[in-house]
Fold this sequence. Notes:
By secondary structure, the chain is an all-alpha fold. It has helices at about 5-20, 20-40, 50-65, 70-95.
Amino acid sequence: MDKKQEIQEVLAERRKTHGDYPRVALLHFLLQDTFDTASTNEKSTYYPYQIIAINMIFHKLARIGCGNSCEIDHWRDIAGYATLVVKELEKLDKEGDVDTTN
């Protein structure tokens, strides 16, 4: 099997669990856009790792919405990104640097 064929097989397999890419991309975009529009927090109040985690969580939610909603890895990934943010905020909290007022 050549590389092109391998890639096509992987994409076909991922489509089953992750959904159709253009549809996933649209849902991800809409989630992000809605968050950006409706959020009362300025983007500058977020740490970069929070923004990235939120973005990745939106992507996982889009995969759940367009692909296999019972794919355990989607849910694990969401928990993982949230846990990474918690760990960073806990470090800041210990140092007294976390702002919990916003």
